[in-house]
Amino acid sequence: MDGNGKPYPRRPIEREYLGTLNDVVSLDRWRVICEKAAEDAQAGNPRARDWLARWLMATESRPLTVLAAEEASNGPRAAAEDEVETERRRIAENRQLLDVLHL
Fold it and tell me: I want to staple 79 with a disulfide (CB 3.0 to 4.6 A). Which of 54, 67, 73, 75 is the partner?
């Protein structure tokens, strides 16, 4: 982050790596990974709970979300609107997961 607390722009190579990761880990595959983590967390696995908490608190998920919004849009306004909608969906999914985990 810079002195104003804003993240540095992604370098082209970082965008390529994130794009490749997105290609390899499809949404269906990611769903299976998340379901397994939720099951393990509910069974008491502290590492699964920690992993889920980091994602649910958006400490790791934002960069890929932002990249996807930027790539899918035609400009900054569309990217911002896509990011807001993605965040709304993420919050709703997190609430459902918390209900399942009884947290």
Answer: 73
Give dist(CA 76, CA 61) in Å, integer.
Answer: 19
Give the position of tokens 């379901």: 35
User: Domains in the chain: how many in total?
Assistant: 1
Count of CB atoms within 10 A of residue 1's CB?
Answer: 7
Contacts 24+ apart (CB under 8 A), 51-55: 52/97, 52/101
Q: Is residue 17 situated within a structural domain? A: no
Residue range(s) defining the domain that contains residue 62: 25-101
Structural domain contains residue 13 = no
pTM more than 0.70:
no
Amino acid occupying residue 92: A
